[in-house]
Amino acid sequence: MGDSVSVRQWSDVCLNECFASYTADYLWPEQKDGLDVDAEYRQTIQKYQGNTEFWQIPLANPGAGTEFTSVYYRGPLFLHALRRQLGDPVFFAAVRDFNASHAYGNASMPEFRTFIQSKSPTNLAPFFDAWLNQTAQPPDEYLYPGTLRS
59-76 pLDDT, tens per residue? Predict the structure, then answer.
């Protein structure tokens, strides 16, 4: 969440590093270069389809010694799928509001999940579980939500 929100513990590192990577890999190229980030996302998912090693480190708690791994390569994918699950207006407002409500303090992944859930009428628990807790590729319904469908 940038430099204004610190993680409660190292297992929450996705709050900082997933967002940093998403900004660098998706948001910046989309805004500055007009990159079709949905196509980029689909190409990346296709590239790692069936690659068990790519999915083996969970984002919610990567574990000691692997904190700075999956958050960089899977984190942006998770956030892009979440963006498409919620839609741009809800996603960007929720991220902004969560960041503002925790500015210059600490936050955790469970707090983020609860906050985002409060902004959606859809039960996001299975989506979050598939992306954050599991060590396998999420099912297609969570890989390709909303406008990510081909």
Answer: 998 877 776 778 888 999
128 vs 98: CA distance, rounded Å: 17
**What is the model's pTM?**
0.91
Do the beta carbons of residue 50 and residue 137 sit within 8 Å? yes
Distances (CA, A) of 149 to 59, 79, 145: 23, 16, 7
- CATH architecture of residue range(s) 5-148: Orthogonal Bundle (1.10)
Within 10 angstroms of residue 31's Cβ, the number of other Cβ atoms is 11
Taking the C-alpha atoms of residue 113 and residue 125, their distance in angstroms, rounded to an integer, is 8
Which of the residues in the chain have pLDDT under 70? 1-3, 5, 7, 9, 67, 147-150
Amino acid, single-letter form, for residue 44: T
Classify the phi-psi angles of 11: left when phi > 0, otherwise alpha if psi is within -120 to 50, otherwise beta: alpha
Contact of 117 with 125, CB cutoff 8 Å? yes
Q: Alpha-carbon distance 81 to 131, whole Å?
A: 9
Q: Are residues 70 and 58 in contact, defined by beta-carbon separation less than 8 angstroms?
A: yes
